[in-house]
Queue: 2 jobs
Job 1
Amino acid sequence: MNIRRPIPTAAAAGAAVLGLLALSACSDAGAADGKEGGKLSVVASFYPMQYLAEQIGGEHVKVTTLTKPGVEPHDLELKPRQTAQLSEAGYVLYLKGVQPSVDGAIEKAGVKHTTDAAALTDLDVAGIETTAGKSGGKSGGKSGGGNGADDGHGHGHDEHAEGEGEDGGHSADDGHNHGEDGADPHVWLDPVKYAEIAEGVGAALGKADPDNAAAYEKNADALVTKLKALDASFRDGLKNTTTKTFITTHSAFGHLAGRYGLEQEGVAGVDPEAEPSLARIKELQSVAKKDNVTTVFFETLASDRTAKTLAADTGLKTDVLDPLEGITDKSKGRDYFEVMNANLVALKTALGAK
């Protein structure tokens, strides 16, 4: 008869400690290689970056976004848990200047494979010169939310190598404060520039996860093809309109306006919650009359109070023009393409497309 001897308490405790250490080692190893469940762990700053990561990464990535649906990205303050997610990521995708708290956290996280999407395209508003400062006047036509041609940001693709990280991200001190001084960081609203970013993200993911580089390249090419088709739809849809001017409470559409020959009149600049001055209200009333403006646009993630007040004072209508900083139940679509197509419909109606 075999007698099973009890294991001494000290030995049992030692075994438990060894087990915990083993689990901890496995966890650390998973964090060290940037993988989660065999997939590349990707952290994206907010929706436009999340969408790129998901579409290009496909089945090979696990994407976490720092900005939950319904949260205004510009106001995001990171929680300790989110900061920890950053440090354990295998790849980080963000757009410098949109979210100051995120910019600082990413710099401190020191993740090897980090991409600043602003480094992957030309940040100047397409095809225009801008003359206004911080007040949020016309952009995409004459002034306001875009960078001027001589503001120091007019760099082409072959100039990005200097001062950037391994995957195209800017170094911490390169001076690109894209969200400040009235600059318009909303490059994803220009399908052409968003396509350029998509190509760069595909290449960067391939560096972070070489085993699946071919898949990332293929997915990026497919997304670029869809974005080119979207660009064609906007060009055709906005080619012949009664007016080229639209008014919006959030001066987020400088890149879109510049691409398609429109003029954006921002009520109060790039801050969607900013209150316009009385002088600006009077100016917009004059512009609306002179340029046959029909609609004041507002967005889903900010109050519509200013838009409705201005519209009531000028006899205009209101409608949604979505800057696509996040998708919620109120969004006119479930993803980037559906919302962009809804924006096109709204613009065609407001501008009197023929």
Job 2
Amino acid sequence: MDLVFDVGNTETVIGWFQDTELRGHWRVSTDGRRTADEYGLMLAQLMSAAGIGGAPVRAATIGSVVPALTLTLADACRRYLHVEARAVDARTPLPIRLDVEEPLTVGADRIVNTLAALRMYAADTVVVDLGTATTFDCITREGVFIGGVISPGVKTAASNLTERTAKLPRVELVPPRRVIGRRTETCIQSGVFYGAVDAIDGTVTRIREEWGAPELLVVATGGLAELIGPHCRTVQKIEPFLTLYGLEFAREHLAAST
């Protein structure tokens, strides 16, 4: 069994693979205050609840945009799962290339998304990752990351709207029945939801025109992919766990090259 950790700014998604097949996953809050003991005990409880408690862990791979948590998770894996975790970053020798001005600043999530797109699609691809931020990763069919776009995430934008206004309430992020809201809550729901949908479609259209690649494959991933993706005209595939697959592909490549 292999474990992978996709550590985001708000949530951490943990996946477990058996023979390169994603067999299960857990989504927990990212909390830099947790100790290695707390993470270790949490992992033990999650695995026990899934019926895999005590199963040997062959490898653990971490992709993190929160550097402070990388060492904590690695320590938890070492002490509680008896495995040395490996972190993936821009220095990791993977069969991809970061063709940008500052490659060492590229986040681990975008790196493994590039690897996953190369392995799974082998096409010029835009990966729309819907998390705390909404990122657009531009990846060639040869596995070259050529840059992209970073914009505020859907929930981040919604939170900013309600926190900075005195009378606007928080609302549930759901597809509204109508575009034209007839009360304050439905007006906000429509604005947040369709604002995100149209921002994705508009950004992808601009990327397609600038790249000069009309046959771009557009893949939505991340925690909100299944909610937002089906409403986007430009999104062709929805793979919520693309980043987890990328981490497993990274583990597989590194194991084969040692």
